[in-house]
């Protein structure tokens, strides 16, 4: 009976409709307070800055050109905006540096947790999760306290007689890097752990059986197996560090700005909302490129649900 | 949303209780729901040795008379197709079967043959693509499962982990809106039935596999369904427990008179328990019959091969008369063979011969087949002789061991095989 | 010395891991210790004292900001969890249908966009609304928090839902439960640990947020993190240590609870 098929189709359509209704609240809220506003940013990036902040409804390319170029006020020529470029460069550099360092430190840590016996493994996981849920600000503050001129490290070194004057660590790129590595390390360890937990050590045994050394086993067997985790962790660290705002603000002072601080500036003293918008979109674009790279890699590595 | 369950036809919302206990004559033509037979007093029966002395009959307020002669389930020309386009899978290819009241009916077949799909269609978890499914004459194919007076014992038991044993058993009755008193009393009865009274308050995760199976059974029986569906319920149990449960289930069905539809891939289990068996393969029903019929007179090669062990021989049909044929073997000898219903064999056919129906004999002119023994398998109760026939094939003969007997026949001996008048059966392919 | 060859052992990894753990906890522990410092600065330890805690307790701004944080976090967590539960039910345990991947990407979108970008976007968007309606209460903060808490609540709920076998719900239907009864009596109770976990996660995430809150808030609407950020940029006293310690205790407490809830399900 075709009628049975008809009823089946109808039921399926109703099911799908129900699912849309169910997901509506979440989608609407996110549309209103997360995704939707992004479009407004795009629109604003094409407007002119108003005298006291906000915008004048006048189309202009200025914001976008100002991202990379600046207009000489005397002879109106365009040249590369050094300030912006150096900030962009610092952001990328520090984000990459953070990613690499967290990967270097995180890899053995995740491996350690994954190779603990089942009972204590949960405890170690718990221990690595706690810093993760500690407020970003508190963690940054903790680093601040340590590397200040009157902080622990300097005081200790002076007491031990290693140095006479405190080393200026705060308000440098170095400080920002340390801060970000400290803050984002758990974000790297968790996906790495998820991958490592799944390692079938019989494969490693096979490697040893076939005359591989420890290092070779690490490089040729373990690492490829956990590559999806490495990639996931890298993305999870790279994206926030690129757009970092709190850490460079607290640890870098006003001088070592990253992209996030530059953006904030436009909405504060800079009074150039369109430029702030353009910079934000630029940041988004860089992030999307990175995500695409991840998706392509992850697609070939392992299939995850969703 | 959570279940892909069809909401089905909406006319005449009849709730559960009426469906189970037989609504008073509802002549409303718009009402598609079942008009069930009125309850009939259940005759006493002998109670099995393992069962409590309480008369089981009294547990079943509604007995089903053995004499209404109606079919409990009619499956008519049902097709089930999953997916569409290239990846389409035809799980059931136009199957029809009628299952009688009071029957222990088994769907037997290898994995993927469609038996579970058919069961799920009867239960209501899937819609048929085509065809009808009738319960006591009423088409239920479009009803959602919670409107069918049919209950299922799942292969994985599907016990609710956050409820106790008693709560699980009482769940169906709760959903039907029964009073607390009735739920409690019926639950107590069920617990007694499956001998789980001690464990009533336990969580279902704390009991053993065999106990879980009993709870699943009690839960499905509590609402007194017309038909009980069992989806390979014994497959997770160990051998001894399985054997015990097989006997118990059989007795249970007999006592309660509920129609059991049992799905399994274990042919021994099917033969042990069933009144009738439907052998399935690749979405089709190949043969329906009693265990005796299926075993003795398999109609198709697949059925013969799937149930028990069989030898296959090639032969030419010589003559046909009265449902029996005379066939010529390659060796030139002629024997009689049985013929499946409504089948006219011609030319070259396959014969099936059960190993225990052939006998070893001296290798002379009187033997139907001759060959050399090349393998012996001693099995305690009997011995299998693997004989390499002169025509090249291997033929297995099974012989019961007599007491104290070392086999008189050894590997390498030349032997003859007698295939009697009723031993050979022609296959339908 | 006989040491069995361990297949898992890699040289130096354990040492590095231990160093990392120590390095992760040391700064926080030092921070906490100095909250009890009687002296003014971190450089010198002048005896155990609770004066900074007292000072923080009496600081109106701190109390006000903390209270505001808790209010916002509670509201946002509840809203986000409800929305996320519904979304999880809609997107899990189903064969793929049109729009499913899009939905999934949408729900997780807040995780994929840098916070500063969202913060900026909301600043612009809400400022327009403020001008149009004149409303400038906590509503903006609450809805902003709800939005980025949804993916965090969604993840554990979805994980829990995926691990639940559909067969149980089929069994319920087989036993005459209507779809609504099935949801109420079977799906929801079994899903509950996941929902609780999602709720707690959302609460902590909302409590911790600094960037988006900083941009979206109107004057005088400090939450605890934004208050601390303001202080950090100006004068730093051990009062900060005291506040941080209390905050830490709260977060750790909730995370510990979360761990227990997620573990006891089997």
Mean pLDDT of chain B: 80
How would the global form of chain B be characterised? elongated
Strand content of chain A: under 5%
H/E element sequence of chain A: HEEHEEHHHHHHHHHH
Number of strands of chain B: 20
Q: Ranges of chain B with pLDDT <50 over ≥5 residues?
A: 1-67
Would you count the extended β strands of chain A for me? 4
Biggest sheet descriptor of chain B: 6 strands, mixed
Rg of chain A (CA only): 25 Å
| Low-pLDDT segments, ≥5 res of chain A | 301-306
Q: Give the distance, in angstroms, between the N- and C-terminal Cα atoms of chain B.
A: 46 Å
What's the helical proportion of residues of chain B?
10-25%
Arithmetic mean pLDDT of chain A = 83
Question: What's the story with the biggest beta sheet of chain A?
Answer: 2 strands, antiparallel
- Estimate the helix proportion of chain A, in percent: over 70%
Strand ordering within the main sheet of chain B:
6-7-8-3-9-10
Topology diagram in text:
The complex is a heterotrimer of chains A (306), B (429) and C (266).
Chain A: H1 2-44, E1 48-49, E2 55-56, H2 62-68, E3 69-71, E4 78-80, H3 82-114, H4 118-133, H5 136-147, H6 152-159, H7 173-197, H8 201-209, H9 214-242, H10 246-252, H11 259-267, H12 273-301
Antiparallel strand pairs in A: 1-2, 3-4
Helix pairs in contact in A: 1-12, 2-12, 3-7, 3-9, 4-7, 5-7, 5-10, 7-9, 7-10, 8-9, 9-12, 11-12
Chain B: H1 16-21, E1 71-82, E2 89-100, E3 104-108, H2 115-123, E4 130-135, E5 138-139, E6 150-153, H3 165-175, H4 180-193, H5 209-221, E7 227-231, H6 239-256, E8 259-264, H7 267-273, E9 276-281, E10 284-289, H8 291-296, H9 301-306, E11 311-321, E12 324-328, E13 334-338, E14 348-353, E15 358-361, E16 369-378, E17 382-389, E18 394-400, E19 414-419, E20 424-426
Parallel strand pairs in B: 3-8, 3-9, 6-7, 7-8
Antiparallel strand pairs in B: 1-2, 1-4, 4-5, 9-10, 11-12, 11-14, 12-13, 14-20, 15-19, 16-17, 16-19, 17-18
Chain C: H1 13-35, H2 51-58, H3 60-91, H4 100-107, H5 109-112, H6 115-133, H7 139-162, H8 166-174, H9 179-208, H10 211-216, H11 224-233, H12 238-263
Helix pairs in contact in C: 1-12, 2-12, 3-7, 3-9, 3-11, 7-9, 8-9, 9-12
């Amino acid at each position: 009976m075709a009628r049975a098929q008809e009823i089946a189709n109808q039921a399926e359509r109703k099911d799908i409709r129900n699912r849309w209704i169910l997901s509506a609240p979440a989608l609407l809220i996110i549309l209103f307070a997360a995704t939707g506003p992004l479009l407004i940013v795009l629109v604003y990036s094409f407007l002119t800055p108003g005298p006291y902040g906000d915008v004048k409804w006048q189309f202009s390319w200025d914001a976008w050109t100002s991202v990379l170029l600046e207009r000489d006020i005397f002879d109106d020529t365009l040249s590369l905006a050094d300030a912006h470029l150096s900030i962009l460069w610092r952001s990328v550099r520090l984000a990459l540096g953070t990613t690499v360092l967290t990967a270097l430190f995180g890899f053995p840590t995740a491996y350690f947790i994954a190779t603990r016996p089942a009972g204590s493994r949960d405890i170690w996981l718990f221990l690595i999760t706690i810093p993760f849920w500690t407020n970003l600000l508190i963690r940054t503050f903790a680093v601040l306290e340590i590397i200040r001129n009157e902080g622990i490290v300097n005081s200790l070194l002076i007491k031990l007689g290693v140095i006479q004057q405190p080393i200026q660590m705060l308000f440098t790129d170095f400080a920002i890097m340390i801060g970000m590595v400290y803050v984002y390390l758990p974000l790297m360890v968790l996906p790495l752990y998820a991958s490592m937990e799944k390692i079938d050590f019989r494969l490693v045994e096979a490697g040893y059986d076939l005359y591989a050394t420890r290092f070779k086993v690490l490089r040729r067997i373990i690492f490829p197996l956990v590559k999806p985790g490495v990639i996931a962790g890298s993305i999870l660290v790279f994206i926030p560090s690129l757009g970092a705002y709190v850490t460079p603000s607290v640890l870098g002072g006003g001088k070592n700005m990253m992209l996030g601080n530059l953006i904030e500036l436009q909405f504060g003293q800079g009074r150039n909302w369109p430029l702030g918008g353009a910079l934000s979109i630029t940041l988004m674009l860089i992030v999307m490129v990175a995500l695409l790279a991840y998706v392509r890699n992850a697609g070939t590595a392992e299939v995850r649900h969703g | 949303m959570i279940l892909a369950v069809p909401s089905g036809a909406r006319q005449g919302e009849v709730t559960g209780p009426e469906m189970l206990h037989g609504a008073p004559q509802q002549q409303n033509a718009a009402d598609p729901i079942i008009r069930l037979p009125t309850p009939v007093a259940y005759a006493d029966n002998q109670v099995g040795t393992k069962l409590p002395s309480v008369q089981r009959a009294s547990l079943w307020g509604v007995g089903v008379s053995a004499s209404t002669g109606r079919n409990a389930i009619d499956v008519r020309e049902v097709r089930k197709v999953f997916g569409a386009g290239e990846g389409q899978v035809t799980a059931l290819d136009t199957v029809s079967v009628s299952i009688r009241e009071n029957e222990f009916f088994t769907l037997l077949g290898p994995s993927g043959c469609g038996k579970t799909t058919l069961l799920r269609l009867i239960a209501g978890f899937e819609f048929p693509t085509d065809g009808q499914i009738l319960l006591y004459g009423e088409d239920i194919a479009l009803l959602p499962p919670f409107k069918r007076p049919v209950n299922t014992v799942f292969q994985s038991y599907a016990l609710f982990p956050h409820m106790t044993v008693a709560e699980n058993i009482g769940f169906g009755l709760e959903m039907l809106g029964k009073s607390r008193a009735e739920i409690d009393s019926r639950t107590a009865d069920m617990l007694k039935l499956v001998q789980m009274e001690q464990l009533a308050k336990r969580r279902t995760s704390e009991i053993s596999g065999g106990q879980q199976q009993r709870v699943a059974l009690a839960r499905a029986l509590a609402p007194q369904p017309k038909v009980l569906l069992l989806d390979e319920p014994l497959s997770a149990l160990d051998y001894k427990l399985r054997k015990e449960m097989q006997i118990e289930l059989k007795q249970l069905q007999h006592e309660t008179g509920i129609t059991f539809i049992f799905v399994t891939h274990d042919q021994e289990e099917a033969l042990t328990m069933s009144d009738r068996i439907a052998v399935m393969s690749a979405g089709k029903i190949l043969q329906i019959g009693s265990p005796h019929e299926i075993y003795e007179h398999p109609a198709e090669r697949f059925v013969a091969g799937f149930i028990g062990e069989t030898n296959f021989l090639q032969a030419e049909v010589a003559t046909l008369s009265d449902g029996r044929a005379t066939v010529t073997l390659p060796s030139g000898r002629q024997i009689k063979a049985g013929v499946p219903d409504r089948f006219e064999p011609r030319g070259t056919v396959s014969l099936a011969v059960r190993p225990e129906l052939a006998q070893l004999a001296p290798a002379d002119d009187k033997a139907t087949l001759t060959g050399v023994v090349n393998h012996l398998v001693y099995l305690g109760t009997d011995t299998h002789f693997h004989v390499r026939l002169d025509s090249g094939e291997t033929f297995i003969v099974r012989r019961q061991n007599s007491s104290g007997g070392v086999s008189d026949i050894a590997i390498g001996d030349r032997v003859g095989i007698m295939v009697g008048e009723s031993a050979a059966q022609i296959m339908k392919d | 010395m006989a040491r069995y060859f361990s297949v898992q052992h890699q040289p130096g990894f354990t040492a590095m891991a231990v160093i990392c753990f120590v390095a992760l906890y040391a700064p926080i522990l030092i921070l906490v210790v100095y909250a009890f410092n009687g002296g003014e600065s971190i450089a010198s330890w002048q005896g155990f004292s609770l004066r900074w805690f007292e000072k923080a307790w009496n600081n109106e701004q701190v109390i006000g900001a903390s209270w505001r944080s808790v209010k916002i976090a509670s509201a946002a967590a509840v809203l986000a969890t409800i929305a996320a539960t519904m979304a999880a039910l809609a997107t899990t345990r189903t064969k793929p249908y049109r729009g499913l991947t899009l939905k999934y990407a949408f729900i997780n979108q807040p995780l994929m966009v840098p916070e500063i970008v969202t913060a900026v976007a909301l600043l612009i968007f809400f400022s327009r609304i403020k001008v149009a309606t004149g409303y400038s209460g906590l509503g903006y903060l609450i809805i902003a928090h709800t939005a980025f808490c949804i993916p965090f609540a969604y993840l554990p709920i979805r994980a829990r839902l995926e691990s639940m076998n559909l067969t149980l719900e089929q069994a319920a239907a087989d036993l005459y439960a209507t779809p609504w009864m099935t949801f109420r009596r079977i799906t929801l109770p079994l899903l509950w640990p996941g929902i609780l976990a999602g709720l707690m996660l959302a609460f902590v995430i909302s409590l911790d947020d600094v960037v988006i809150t900083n941009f979206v808030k109107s004057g005088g609407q400090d939450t605890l993190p934004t208050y601390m950020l303001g202080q950090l940029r100006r004068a730093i006293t051990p009062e900060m240590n005291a506040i941080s310690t209390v905050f830490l205790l709260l977060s750790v407490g909730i995370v510990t609870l979360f761990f227990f809830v997620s573990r006891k399900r089997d």
